[in-house]
């Protein structure tokens, strides 16, 4: 991905060089902004969110197993919602509907998971043990689910579209949204009246490609006359020029946008922002015409002035939104790892619950059969405990006193 971005920036740099022999003129500024526009119109590489649905499925199964092995007093309750008898106990509120559904499926012999048909085990010590263990696994799974956070690709897309078009996230002709009410408002340094440079990428493109009369039809940026005049008189004239500038941006298809790609593009923009060879730009941060000191898209066209000398910190709204998109992509990558870890642990808890459920299905008989089998194979295994009792008073259940035994030490 990073190599693709480097190639794209190199292509744009060559185009700018061919169009103008002087660094930081309008055409170079246009292609600098085009690189950013391609990112803003790209496809964010937000990780796919597959864990949310999987975690919900595991929690549902644990809830089903939980009710399946519950004690009879609890299981035999009616879990239907009763509007005349609202129960507010926390667990009842959280799980009543799931318990009701699971119980109906058990009754209809319809509950299956992981190749198992889930049925209600007979009452036994094994079922009682399973009830305790499965209840705890459900509690732990619910706690672990709190670490899951959904991955929202739309948030990244919205930040990128806001960078491109302004707060409406689409091309608008309302003043103050995609474009300024005047070129002075859109292209001048902050601090002068309502000046707000960087309100959108598309607004800045009109600033650097406009001319005094608008008769150039953006040919300084496009390399040939465009279809419409390009002068930043107001939001309407800017809107007229904007579409052809977007269409004129060189592109190699829809860019896959990662946090690294955004950071590389921001770095390239900042590198091309200031031409130290221009006396005016030695004092100001201006993108566009080399020696401009004033930018307004009309009388002083061909540039956008982001910061005047001594004007404090430079703030570019669309640049802030780009950084926001990069930060969200970084956060999504970290959260993806957390979501995967939560799902893995919940699946481990589900495996424990299934093992306990299978033990409950077998009941206590298998344990009794094992004890009986061990004793049949080696009767002496029980003798030491029985032979400790040397009088009828000491001999307690399960041992029995045999007064007629031939050997006195084995009565």
Q: Keyphrases for this structure?
A:
411 residues; mainly alpha; 3 domains; two-stranded antiparallel sheet; rod-shaped; disordered N terminus
General description of the model:
With 411 residues, the protein is mainly alpha-helical. The chain folds into three domains: 2-48 and 153-315, no CATH class; 51-149 and 330-365, no CATH class; 385-410, no CATH class. It is 53% helix and 4% strand. The strands form three sheets. A two-stranded parallel sheet has the order 1-4. It has a two-stranded antiparallel sheet with strand order 2-3. It has a two-stranded antiparallel ribbon with strand order 5-6. The longest helix is centred in the last third of the chain and has 46 residues, at 317-362. Residues 1-24 have low confidence and may be disordered. It comes from Trypanosoma brucei.
């Amino acid at each position: 991905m990073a190599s693709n971005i480097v190639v794209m920036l190199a292509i744009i740099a060559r185009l700018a060089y061919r169009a103008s022999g002087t660094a930081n003129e309008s055409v170079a500024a246009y292609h600098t902004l085009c690189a950013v526009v391609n990112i803003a119109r790209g496809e964010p590489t937000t990780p796919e969110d597959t864990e949310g649905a999987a975690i919900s499925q595991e929690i549902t199964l644990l809830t089903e197993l939980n009710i399946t092995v519950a004690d009879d007093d609890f299981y035999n309750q009616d879990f239907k919602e009763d509007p005349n008898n609202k129960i507010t106990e926390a667990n009842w509120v959280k799980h009543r509907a799931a318990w009701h559904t699971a119980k109906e499926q058990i009754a209809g012999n319809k509950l299956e998971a992981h190749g198992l048909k889930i049925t209600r085990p007979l009452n036994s010590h094994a079922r009682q043990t399973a009830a305790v263990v499965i209840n705890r696994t459900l509690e732990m799974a619910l706690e672990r689910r709190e670490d899951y956070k959904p991955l929202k690709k739309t948030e990244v897309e919205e930040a990128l579209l806001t960078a491109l078009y302004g707060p409406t996230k689409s091309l608008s002709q309302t003043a103050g949204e995609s474009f300024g009410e005047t070129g002075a408002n859109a292209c001048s340094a902050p601090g002068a009246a309502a000046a707000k440079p960087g309100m959108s990428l598309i607004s800045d493109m009109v600033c650097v490609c406009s001319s005094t009369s608008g008769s150039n039809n953006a040919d300084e940026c496009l390399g040939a006359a465009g279809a419409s005049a390009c002068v930043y008189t107001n939001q309407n004239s800017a809107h007229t020029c904007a579409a052809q500038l977007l269409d004129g941006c060189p592109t190699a298809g829809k860019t896959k946008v990662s946090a690294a790609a955004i950071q590389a593009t921001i770095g390239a923009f900042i590198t091309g922002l200031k031409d130290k060879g221009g006396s005016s730009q030695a004092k100001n941060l201006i993108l566009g015409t080399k020696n401009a000191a004033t930018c307004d898209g009309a009388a002083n066209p061909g540039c956008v002035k982001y910061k005047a000398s001594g004007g404090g910190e430079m703030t570019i709204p669309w640049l802030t939104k780009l950084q926001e998109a990069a930060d969200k992509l970084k956060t999504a990558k970290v959260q993806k790892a957390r979501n995967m870890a939560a799902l893995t642990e919940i699946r481990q808890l589900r495996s424990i619950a299934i093992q306990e459920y299978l033990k409950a299905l077998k009941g206590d008989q298998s344990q009794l059969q094992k004890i009986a089998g061990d004793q049949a194979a080696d009767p002496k295994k029980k003798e030491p405990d029985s032979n400790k009792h040397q009088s009828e008073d000491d001999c307690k259940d399960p041992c029995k006193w045999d007064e007629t035994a031939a050997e006195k030490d084995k009565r």
